[in-house]
């Protein structure tokens, strides 16, 4: 089967190819491998390489995708080879970074939630991940927080506070997944990954679930360089691909 020319499909991970922070099903993974025989495929995730590899069934399985853009594309791979790497520490400097982290930790220390665990701030190459419940929570606690957040808007209020406090920092904020949100320099959202494919492909499809304003798929979904597809689950992603490419 020959590849569709000048076309690439980019995919969010959580809620698009997998359920939130869960491993891709064998059926979905095999379907995506069949997709690669039809069209070039890349992943654009907010998590770091290790977490995305865990969700896609290991590093070898992950690197079978043509492009892998982790941390919104700040760490990028093409055909399994490192393509680009940026570092938020170099951008902010230690003093500004600590001021931001200290404020975030103090804010979270005063939140009363259904549960609190550990790892509230996760420093990554391209962004800072803030998690009010703590990333070491169980799946049940994760689901509980997500439902609570839907009613009480814990993350949305937190982001508004940070936007006011650090209005001159050059940071922007994006809510993704069930339990956390990301802070990163303006322009370092998922559209950052497009610079590595826009010259080689005339048609760039993007599939994601958090496409509303404030979600971490919004900017790339709305970007004029992409054709955006909003999905509601991995099954919906599969159904839309079957319809789009006559599979």
From TrEMBL:
<dbReference type="GO" id="GO:0046872">
    <property type="term" value="F:metal ion binding"/>
</dbReference>
<feature type="binding site">
    <location>
        <position position="12"/>
    </location>
    <ligand>
        <name>Mg(2+)</name>
    </ligand>
</feature>
<feature type="binding site">
    <location>
        <position position="221"/>
    </location>
    <ligand>
        <name>Mg(2+)</name>
    </ligand>
</feature>
<feature type="binding site">
    <location>
        <position position="14"/>
    </location>
    <ligand>
        <name>Mg(2+)</name>
    </ligand>
</feature>
<dbReference type="InterPro" id="IPR043169">
    <property type="entry name" value="PMM_cap"/>
</dbReference>
<dbReference type="GO" id="GO:0004615">
    <property type="term" value="F:phosphomannomutase activity"/>
</dbReference>
<protein>
    <recommendedName>
        <fullName>Phosphomannomutase</fullName>
        <ecNumber>5.4.2.8</ecNumber>
    </recommendedName>
</protein>
<feature type="binding site">
    <location>
        <position position="182"/>
    </location>
    <ligand>
        <name>alpha-D-mannose 1-phosphate</name>
    </ligand>
</feature>
<feature type="binding site">
    <location>
        <position position="142"/>
    </location>
    <ligand>
        <name>alpha-D-mannose 1-phosphate</name>
    </ligand>
</feature>
<keyword id="KW-0460">Magnesium</keyword>
<keyword id="KW-0963">Cytoplasm</keyword>
<dbReference type="Pfam" id="PF03332">
    <property type="entry name" value="PMM"/>
</dbReference>
<feature type="binding site">
    <location>
        <position position="223"/>
    </location>
    <ligand>
        <name>Mg(2+)</name>
    </ligand>
</feature>
<dbReference type="InterPro" id="IPR036412">
    <property type="entry name" value="HAD-like_sf"/>
</dbReference>
<feature type="active site" description="Nucleophile">
    <location>
        <position position="12"/>
    </location>
</feature>
<dbReference type="GO" id="GO:0006487">
    <property type="term" value="P:protein N-linked glycosylation"/>
</dbReference>
<dbReference type="InterPro" id="IPR005002">
    <property type="entry name" value="PMM"/>
</dbReference>
<dbReference type="InterPro" id="IPR006379">
    <property type="entry name" value="HAD-SF_hydro_IIB"/>
</dbReference>
<feature type="binding site">
    <location>
        <position position="135"/>
    </location>
    <ligand>
        <name>alpha-D-mannose 1-phosphate</name>
    </ligand>
</feature>
<dbReference type="InterPro" id="IPR023214">
    <property type="entry name" value="HAD_sf"/>
</dbReference>
<keyword id="KW-0413">Isomerase</keyword>
<comment type="function">
    <text>Involved in the synthesis of the GDP-mannose and dolichol-phosphate-mannose required for a number of critical mannosyl transfer reactions.</text>
</comment>
<comment type="similarity">
    <text>Belongs to the eukaryotic PMM family.</text>
</comment>
<feature type="binding site">
    <location>
        <position position="124"/>
    </location>
    <ligand>
        <name>alpha-D-mannose 1-phosphate</name>
    </ligand>
</feature>
<feature type="active site" description="Proton donor/acceptor">
    <location>
        <position position="14"/>
    </location>
</feature>
<dbReference type="GO" id="GO:0009298">
    <property type="term" value="P:GDP-mannose biosynthetic process"/>
</dbReference>
<feature type="binding site">
    <location>
        <position position="226"/>
    </location>
    <ligand>
        <name>Mg(2+)</name>
    </ligand>
</feature>
<feature type="binding site">
    <location>
        <position position="180"/>
    </location>
    <ligand>
        <name>alpha-D-mannose 1-phosphate</name>
    </ligand>
</feature>
<dbReference type="GO" id="GO:0006013">
    <property type="term" value="P:mannose metabolic process"/>
</dbReference>
<comment type="subunit">
    <text>Homodimer.</text>
</comment>
<dbReference type="GO" id="GO:0005829">
    <property type="term" value="C:cytosol"/>
</dbReference>
<feature type="binding site">
    <location>
        <position position="209"/>
    </location>
    <ligand>
        <name>Mg(2+)</name>
    </ligand>
</feature>
<feature type="binding site">
    <location>
        <position position="21"/>
    </location>
    <ligand>
        <name>alpha-D-mannose 1-phosphate</name>
    </ligand>
</feature>
<comment type="pathway">
    <text>Nucleotide-sugar biosynthesis; GDP-alpha-D-mannose biosynthesis; alpha-D-mannose 1-phosphate from D-fructose 6-phosphate: step 2/2.</text>
</comment>
<keyword id="KW-0479">Metal-binding</keyword>
